[in-house]
TrEMBL record:
Pfam families: VanY. Keywords: Carboxypeptidase, Hydrolase, Membrane, Protease, Transmembrane, Transmembrane helix. InterPro entries: DD-CPase-like, VanY-like_core_dom, VanY/YodJ_core_dom, Zn_M74/Hedgehog-like. Gene3D superfamilies: 3.30.1380.10. Residues 38-64 have a biased composition (Low complexity). This is D-alanyl-D-alanine carboxypeptidase. It comes from Streptococcus ferus. Residues 37-67 are annotated as: Disordered. The keyword Transmembrane helix applies.
Length: 256
């Protein structure tokens, strides 16, 4: 009887140990599974986040460049490398000058906004025909030559080209460019006023076309009064990224 009890006791002890070990195993297995699930979820979340970041980065990079074509009428490029024949735009008079009829309202609104900053703001020049530009350019060359008789024709023209363009190379012939200032002389307006006007220009679709430090790109010296209509989306992008029309068009063409 005693032996039997002993055997029963030993059996129970083994059973308890086995149950304990089984419990331990079950606990360990559950724990492992939970860890795997957690790790898996984390990995998945990380993947989702990083793929979201990648797609948003792609989206930011592409969508900030406005969906416009370099061939759009607002983005026509006229400069000494892009000599253009008379374009005969349809014209509308605004504030004593003529502009392409499609931008007449923008010019009107931009002028009103500029006058709210400084009442002296006024329009000086808008559309100029290729024929008139030729006349103007010749007269400037003659002025330079009479001011300095030692200048050759070439030297005089080079000097003039820092502030006026030969026939076919001035964007005033597009009807999309305006000269607007508080005074009738180039680069003599209060720089603080110019900075304010420049900042609000994109709201009306304009950019300061010949900014400081961009002569290498535009081929023209700084002009505090020459604004060019390029459309609101392009104007905002160009201003934000400090791009000239030449640089912006290159970027648009690269983006395809
Ligand atoms: Zn101008």
């Amino acid at each position: 009887m005693r032996k039997k009890t002993n055997r029963l006791g030993a059996f129970l002890k083994i059973a308890v140990i086995l149950i304990f070990l089984l419990g331990l195993f079950v606990f360990w297995r559950d724990h492992q599974n939970r860890q795997q699930v957690e790790t898996g979820e984390t990995t998945q979340t990380q993947t989702e986040t990083s793929s979201k970041q990648t797609s948003s980065a792609k989206k930011t990079a592409s969508s900030t460049l406005p969906e416009v074509s370099p061939n759009d009428w607002e983005l026509v490029l006229v400069n000494r490398d892009h000599i253009t024949a008379e374009m005969n735009p349809q014209l509308t008079e605004v504030g004593g000058i003529q502009v392409d009829s499609r931008i007449a309202q923008n010019v009107q609104d931009f002028l009103a906004a500029a006058q709210a900053i400084d009442a002296q703001e006024h329009l000086i020049s808008g559309y100029r025909s290729v024929a008139y530009q030729e006349e103007l350019y010749r007269s400037y060359v003659e002025q330079e030559k009479s001011a300095d008789p030692n200048l050759s024709q070439e030297e005089a023209e080079k000097k003039v080209q820092t502030y006026s363009q030969p026939a076919g190379a001035s964007e005033h012939q597009t009807g999309l460019a305006i000269d607007m200032s508080t005074v009738d002389s180039l680069n003599e307006s209060d720089p603080d006023v110019v900075a304010k006007i420049r900042a609000l220009a994109p709201k009306y679709g304009f950019v300061l076309r010949f900014p400081e430090g961009k002569t290498d790109s535009t081929g023209v010296g700084y002009e505090d009064w020459h604004f060019r209509y390029v459309g609101k989306a392009s104007a905002k992008y160009m201003t934000k990224h400090n791009l000239t029309l030449e640089e912006y068009l290159t970027k648009l063409k690269e983006a395809g």
